Amino acid sequence: MVLSTRNIELAIKDDTPHRWFRNVLHIWPKYTSMAPSIAILGAGPSGLLLGRMLELANIAYVIFERDISGNESSSRAGTLDIHADSGQLALQNAGLLDQFKKLARHDAHTILADEKGKVYIRTSESDEANEDRPEIDRKDLRALLLNSVPANRVRWGLKVQHVQRDSDGLISVHFADGNIESGFRLVVGADGAWSKARNLVTSAKPQYSGLHYLTTTIDPQNPFHSIAVSLVGKGNYIAFGGGKQIVSLKLGDGSYYVGVGLRLPENWSSEYAAVLEDPKAIRRLLLNDHFNDWPKLHTDLIEHSDGTFYAWPLYAMPTESLSWRTVPGVTLIGDAAHVSTPFVGEGVNCAMTDSLQLAQQIVKHGVDDLDRAVSGYEKLMFPRAIDLISRSAKSGELFFAPDAPRGWLKTFAGIDCD
User: Any idea where the FAD-binding domain is (predicted)?
Assistant: First the structure.
């Protein structure tokens, strides 16, 4: 128990110490029953869904998030497809599936083309996959999950510096501003690829894939917007070849997300920081140095984009690292456990499945046996995560191969282009 400043002041100033002890004893049962034994690092989809599941089970928890608020509106947000047998199943167990279906887009199609514009795959807006894998903006999914937990469960503006095991065997969370929260029986790292809790369970770190995306947007008020509509429509358009890629996705507000995929050095974004901050300079560099032999059909998406460009280097955990022994008091979910490249579209689905299975294990074993709950969850998570990382790595290799998209189409779509 951490005593409040008011109780400490009372102990010092009161001439009768017995009065202070009576006050402490009076609030002790209420305080301990409300104090959360579980801390979740990160208010992304996996952290919030875990919080929602614990909320439904009346298990106390707290979520620490470095963002100042839940608003997310940059071109880094993008869109997600939520699968019926994983992400949607998790939302159903959380009592949120009906709300999700009201927000999701069930009419998104997918177009796959080579760098010259030859289309190899064009799915229909009425395709069954749109029901099994409807699209939702990442920011809308986060808002849905955030609204499903009480506001006081999320503490904003707290950047985790490190997590440690204290002398009493419990876990404490240390923040960049010097604050410390202690006394947790379980800390769940849901804080992404560079989780501050990971070092307590494994020394492994994400490995750079060799690939970057540079992302931006096309606003609905942009004069070029109508041309983007004719090319991309309501769904996704991907052009790839020669080890490069241009992708555009329709977002819920009518704007288009544009991603440029390239093989770049890991430190590219720091070396070209000044270029990234200058919209004209980054567009000129991409068009002149990387896509000068691509047709205007595709390069217009770069030239006429109007949003800020963001660098997104792609990392993945080594699959051999997903075999750690359960560590008392700490576990990982989502990208913190198994960050992967995004080439099979299952990252957030796998993350929400993590949250569902961890919550189910906690409910099954109870808060008095959290170590067994974590062990049960990790046994379920490891094979799923290894499969995700492996398939995505293979897909990425073919996406960025010199002969793309032919190898990818043959391997993943069964289409022989020869």
Answer: 38-202, 329-363
